[in-house]
Design goal:
Rossmann fold; about 190 residues; 4 helices; 9 strands; seven-stranded mixed β-sheet
Length: about 190
């Protein structure tokens, strides 16, 4: 990743006026929500695999927490990231959070992990599987996600501990350990 730093303040700046939260459920001022199913807080019903309804360079910020792992790594993930890159303005930021496969593997094989803890970690790896959309099709590490982001056109990538923008899985902890890989990718 580019220039590791401990001061993430400038990376987490979301002052852009046009912001899209993909997969969001929490209504927040200045954010539009795209979700796969209709809902009270949903502004656009749609799928991250096809963002053709949005014009090129439409958004300053795109946020996607625990969405990309639901896509096939063979074709869908590459395509979705290219769509996101397309709808971001030059200099725009993608805030992306996925389950960190490296962390989940370490948690799963820890000697002190109970069966219940390992089941919880397994659910984070493969999805909760409570509906047809809740299955994970790819496990992502910093290296893998970085490769996918660069292939989509992103050139500046930074890993950050947390975003703190929404009450979502980007800050999820298991047994005190943050399980998400949180990155800012800049167009």
């Amino acid at each position: 990743m580019n220039n590791p730093t401990t001061d993430f303040t400038h990376l987490l700046d979301v002052t852009g006026k046009d912001r899209l939260h993909i997969g969001g459920k929490e209504k927040k001022e200045s954010w539009k929500i795209l979700y796969i199913k209709p809902g009270e807080a949903v502004d656009y019903v749609g799928d991250v695999r096809d963002l053709s309804s949005f014009k090129k360079d439409s958004f300053d910020i795109v946020y996607a927490s625990h969405v990309l792992e639901h896509l096939s790594y063979q074709t869908e993930l590459n395509s979705a990231l290219r769509w996101i890159f397309r709808i971001l303005r030059p200099g725009g930021k993608l805030f992306v959070s996925v389950p960190d496969l490296d962390t989940l593997c370490r948690l799963f094989i820890r000697e002190q992990s109970t069966k219940e803890q390992r089941i919880l970690v397994m659910r984070m790896m493969f999805g909760g599987q409570i509906d047809p959309h809740d299955f994970h099709h790819v496990g992502l590490t910093e290296e893998f996600l970085g490769d996918f982001l660069r292939a989509a056109g992103f050139r500046v990538l930074h890993r950050v501990p947390e975003f703190g923008l929404f009450k979502d899985s980007s800050s999820l902890r298991t047994d005190g350990v943050l399980i998400s890989l949180n990155m800012v990718a800049i167009k």
